[in-house]
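F.,

This is the one I mentioned.
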């Protein structure tokens, strides 16, 4: 019996893409990482699960997942290369400490009203966003 599709796998299928083994394994690796993982780590973990999946397939899948607003590259923790973050329900939010690089996730961004206004003002359909604030965390801010 086939395992039911995850909501994110359904988004791939509903976006008009085939659910190939490579795509499903890349998605599995990202989901198991809780949505914060570098491309190098994705390539490594995918190879552990299926050594027949090459780097090119992983990067093509990351591009497709980005176009579908399932993941978004983020340059948190002062990284030169991005970490890929899952966009739960089309969005993801961080507060990043500029001193120790601690990343705090939060869920309610309060941007619903702004999203509607931007859609109307610019005649666009907004499908997702990534919001990051930078500052000093509780341990790093001056007392």
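My design for it:
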């Amino acid at each position: 019996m086939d395992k039911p599709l995850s909501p994110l796998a359904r988004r791939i299928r509903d976006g008009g893409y085939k659910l190939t083994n490579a795509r499903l394994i890349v998605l599995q690796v990202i989901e198991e990482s809780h949505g914060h993982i570098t491309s190098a780590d994705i390539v490594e973990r995918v190879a552990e699960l299926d050594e027949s999946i090459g780097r090119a397939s992983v990067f093509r899948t990351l591009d497709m997942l980005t176009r579908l607003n399932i993941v978004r590259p983020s340059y948190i923790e002062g990284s030169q290369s991005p970490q890929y973050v899952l966009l739960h329900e089309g969005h993801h939010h961080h507060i990043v400490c500029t001193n120790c690089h601690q990343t705090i996730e939060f869920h309610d961004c309060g941007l619903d009203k702004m999203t509607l206004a931007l859609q109307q003002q610019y005649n666009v359909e907004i499908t997702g966003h990534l919001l990051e604030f930078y500052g000093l965390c509780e341990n790093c801010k001056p007392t």
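The chain has a mean pLDDT of 86.

Talk soon.
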